[in-house]
Write a structure and sequence with these properties.
single chain; alpha/beta; Quinone Oxidoreductase, Chain A, domain 1; Rossmann fold; 2 domains; 7-stranded mixed β-sheet; globular
Length: about 350
Amino acid sequence: MRATTIHAPFDMRVADVPDPVVRNPGDAVVRVLRSCICGSDLWAYRGESARQAGQRIGHEFLGIVEETGAEVTGVGRGDLVVAPFTWSDGVCDYCREGLTTSCEHGGFWGSVGSDGGQGEAVRVPFADATLVALPAEAASDDRLLAALLTLSDVMGTGHHAALGAGARAGVTVAVVGDGAVGLCGVLAAKRLGADRIIALGRHEARTDIARRFGATDVVAERGDAAVEAVRELTRGQGAHAVVEAVGTEQSMRTAVSITRDGGAIGFVGVPHGSGTGLDLSVMFDRNIALRGGVAPVRTYIPELLPDVLDGTIDPSPVFDLTVGLEGVPDGYKAMDERTALKVMVAN
Ligand SMILES: [Zn+2]
């Protein structure tokens, strides 16, 4: 079959690889219908996180179950399913607490020895615990498929950030980052009932989506000017709940500066850079909490799925470019050059 492989920075290829097969009784093989390129994939693309030459990539996909091992009972051949960006066994202490990303037997698609989502098919370990079945009729609805695909990562990650930040009715939420995760953070904050949502971003196409998703204010300034603008909008206080969806020192510093005393930051941007941008003495003096981290999106899918199916939330506008599998290298280029917000791969 064909699948995306990474060989060196900026060297993505679509290559012939062995067909996945059921290896363990809990496995399933899923034929991929849709996958996508994540902002976090760009760190590998740019050589900022190391990959072995030929390693597979892609951790967001949905598709049709093609084959199952003897112990799989929850999903069967022909089922439409979505996979979260990690697999997990569903039974260990962490999984039972909902922290599926810390599963004792879990793993990440595209890690050495596993399949990646940006390919024709994927071997899924612990299929019963990992996969979530979707209504079969969604397979013929392109808009709905795109919305459902976000449950594999960005919508669940935005939700994790909004929860960590304490987004709820009666509070002001600010979102640092206008990528797909930041935009989903806006949508999640709206869904959780936030009264006011301030989106920080300079790109009009993206802030337009933020407004569609529920942002009441947009701050286009950066750095100190952004901090000032948010404070002006909040009687000098800052936001109760701040979503940090970038992961750089600068963005974390901005997040701390725009958080109201007693508020919290939900951070989901994969941290990059030598420092953290955190000044603990400032956070101490102002009682600012920091929560978040890698999102256990498997745990959130059952909660978010009904709202996606009935249209209460529609994250599909985060995709602004669709390519075929052979077009994946062009998709990376488009996202790296920021001519695309998020690229969907339609097999
Ligand atoms: Zn587990």
